[in-house]
């Protein structure tokens, strides 16, 4: 049994991590991949810098051509300086403009190749960094989810926890491999191009800054609207899909009643709604981008206007203005992409915060070692987090080798008692001890060695039968596994397609509930604990199967103490003592004969079950 840590002092809702904690967790999980993270950064920076070459070269070319008198333009003083720098001063020869064009073309092509190589390498390195990081993150969440108190897992938080481990991990993983590369590349391009713009001329750089408030206004307009619109569209897609599926699966019934018409109308209505919403989303995106385009047109116009004045005043060359305008133009796509991806980044950030929230849950230190002995529950009461009372002042002692059965109506508190006896749930008041040591303080490994619990719903892990058994004892060899199976009468495993190596669980060989229960009992034999807690372990099987399971349970209990939650009275008859529970209390105690003679609840149940 995997004994989970117990912490009753937790608040009910699973927490969300703050952005800083989320980032720290993410960074911690990049351990081992950091060199790839840096390489991604360097490749992104190089690609962005290589992207500066084209605007720069075109600006230079403009100056060279102007200096050469191509287009009949007059040379400004600043152009003359540039000319000197370009080595074409003193009157260009006939070949100078042509050579400059060739040089510029070669530089642009070279830079393009470098940018492409960097983008390709960056993408490959990012995959190397992101996949193990997200896998580590998922494992960290899973690890914590398995170690926090099982009372939390059984409560209202289960769904939340499952969605954090499954959906949020998928969201983060998708973002890491699709959105993050684009965001990183866009950010580098924006920063490097803006720096390039300021380096060309600080005055033009200042004019370029005008774009920031304009983009900001677009973002403020876009963000609050985008989330609800996309959510509505996704919900409409979901409705359409389920309507279509319902129509297909129910086709025979619809035909039988000749009721296709109304169902088709409903499908049509759902499709029309999804279509209209998609058109609306398209319109919304167009409006968002047109706002961006407006900002870009205004600022580009301002840069050209300011450039005209600066060139006229002789401060800069026409080539510099060309470079500045092209650099500003380079911002358009990445900024558009950043705005478009903002809500995806936000949603991935929210998922990361939810995952980090699980990892931040404290797992209390438990160090006490158990040494076996008598199980003693004293004054035990339990109320679940949602306020449901389950147990009231329960006293129970199970000595070494003693088997106690618990019977009672549904909701009487049997399972709660079993989980407290197994150390899986901490009672809200009172104590549960084994050999004088409190179970809630016992080291999980020590608890696992001494107490094993079998639940009614036995899980078959998607792996081989052998690995399913090794959950209880990882080092067990095949002979040990076979002996354990034999001891519970599960010889049928040898007749499975690949015997112990048969894959079971999701997608594998389908084991029936009785077979799964037998594997669970074989696990108990492998774990070899002092105390076994069986919670309705045979309730699901058919009567023939139930008899075989009863025998297996009796064998597993031989030489051990046991607490058996018995749904069928036949399970309780052989017990040394029987407890009858009602509304969270133990109302009768005794052997089968004593309780029958007493004429109380048990006698009534017994008459109904066995007759007479
Ligand atoms: N995780 C939980 N969160 C909140 N309430 C719970 C939880 N588990 C059980 N309860 C409630 O506690 C009470 C006792 O339940 P428990 O499962 O211990 O009874 P039981 O005798 O084992 O019932 P059954 O035979 O149906 O399994 C019931 O009212 C039940 O609804």
UniProtKB/TrEMBL annotation:
It comes from Citricoccus zhacaiensis. InterPro entries: AAA+_ATPase, ABC1_TM_dom, ABC1_TM_sf, ABC_transporter-like_ATP-bd, P-loop_NTPase, Type_1_exporter. It is found in: Cell membrane. This is ABC transporter permease. SMART domains: AAA (SM00382). Residues 375-608 form the ABC transporter domain. The chain crosses the membrane at residues 36-58, 100-121, 179-198, 204-223, 297-328. It comes from the Bacteria.
